[in-house]
Amino acid sequence: MVALLVSSTAAAQDRVDALQLYRDGRFEEAIEVCRNELEELPRNMDSYTVMGWSLLALRRYEEAYNEARRALSIEPFDQRIIEIAGEAQYYLGNNREALYYFEQYVSIAPSGRHIAVVYYYMGEIFIRIGRYNNADIALSTALHFDSKDARWWSRLGYARIMREDYQWALEAYENALKLNPNLVEAREGLETVRRNLSGG
Hints:
There is one protein chain. The protein has a domain at 114-200: Serine Threonine Protein Phosphatase 5, Tetratricopeptide repeat, CATH 1.25.40. 78% of the residues lie in helices and 0% in strands. The protein is built from twelve helices and no strands. The protein is elongated. The N and C termini lie far apart (84 Å).
């Protein structure tokens, strides 16, 4: 019995942690470990999740989406997998599909771990398709959850410029530059706003 316990403990210690590989930036190795895990446990959502994150990190978006779809056929409401599917579709340029997944995430996990970045992606999609009021709402919501990202403030400023809402754009760009005084797009946006406010 003791020998069996020792051998099982040794086997557990020998098992490679895919999540740690992902955190260490060893994405290919993490994917390989996840695929091996899924051969043993085909319904393991943790393995699908780490594999999805690793594929996104490697910019293998089509593959990430295909794996996410496979996982969602097993567990349709796993918020981590839904976010992976949305992000993959975002980077593939499929705006409608990405929005579908991001809206699903918001519905399922309104205070989920990835809620800020989900709203950020939604804001970027609304900018892409020219729905600047929606972009303002989505980016403002992202910043409600995480106000420390200078680029998000800058993108909010841009959405407000496109709405010709210069006073609020000014505030957004000023917040961006407080966080990162060297952010070129925010400095340029601020100049554009000041010209419009001064009638130049």
